[in-house]
Amino acid sequence: MTDYTNDTHDPSLTSWVESANDPDTDFPIQNLPFGVFTRNDNDDLASAHIGVAIGDSVFDLTRAVEAGILAVEDDLDTDFFLGILNEFMSRNHRQWSAVRSEISNLLRHDDAQLRDDAQLRDRLIIPQSDVEMQLPAIIGDYTDFYASISHATNVGTMFRPDNPLLPNYKHLPVGYHGRASSIVESGTSIRRPHGQLKADDQDTPTFGPVRLLDYEMEVGFFIGGGNSMGSRIDMVGATDHIFGLVLVNDWSARDVQKWEYQPLGPFNAKNFGTTISPWVVTLDALAPFREAGPHRSADDPQPLDYLKPNEDMQINMTVEVSIRSQQMRDTNMDAHVISRGNFNDMYWTIAQMLVHHTSTGCNMQPGDLIASGTVSGPEEFNRGCLLERTWRGTNPIDLPDGTQRKFLQDGDEVIMRGWCERAGCRRIGFGECRGIIEPAQ
Ligand code: MN
Fold first, then answer.
1. Is residue 1 over pLDDT 80?
2. Range of 112's domain?
3. In this structure, are 358 and 378 located in the same domain?
């Protein structure tokens, strides 16, 4: 395995922000994910600020630049006045890394500049509970892949029992163009959509609230610098175009999907809402968790040359889904964990998805979002959506409030988490991606 780490990943590094040293925090000094927020204590602020999460706080980069303490080259500091990350995302890997190092230096336990200036510290370090997170970027385009072979095989088995995995699957990462306008930040409610539905025993469809509402536990990545139309992104250098990763919930209406998907794939089953976690964990932060792969069995075809992995791009990242019903919230019950999987089970890497997507000369822009598809693994507990987890409702899940779930009910909250851990490394996390189902209107 290649070592992609540097001083910022040193597991012994601690911060003077005490909560960042808690072994359970998602946001130790080794993480430093970027996000966009507004402050509740809105003293001087009409617009959004850019910051990084550190422990249970946010380091306000917009104010840090204003205060003149963030020493960065190439006029990068002006990017942090824009209230959106697209411009910073458009920079190159060397520039992202330089900013990461600078932030790490300011927050480390033995750096006195901010630590010992109480007034400045109070302006720049804000409890996360005092901020409201926004979408990190203007997302011009959104694409969703289907990169888990377990997911593809399970869903294929249900929809086409005689022909589960289609012949293209092991040759190219299958995807579809999604809808960017309905991507929302974690915490936004999702209204149960209406759709055209056709029951198996009916000849004609009806229109009404969907019944088989589902989530999909996915991992998404933000494009950094793009490519011009007509040019391709190659496997060599592909990672320089990837800014960072977030958790994605691709809300899905299975009854709509089943009726509409042939021959052109998902449409209204997927376009009513997609939720992402607010903190973008950079590819730099994930360096200690990169692995070789994907591993193909001996009788699988090798990828064509343009898709051959040339660096370790499988990411060892645990993803977990919990449900908390309205009744569970009313009676103060904890969310109930219903699945846990690993992103390193995917059949295609994010680099392969990006390269295949641009292989026609399709142009990417900074802030475009690409999602992996449902992250499922070989075991029942690894399945990242209810369609698979309950096997189309035939194997319902018991919730601690005494009810059962085949698909989502009104009032259900879906909570996704992700984290990376490995011996000899500091654990880092992605925070949460949440959403509650509101009744159809
Ligand atoms: Mn999906």
1. no
2. 7-134
3. yes
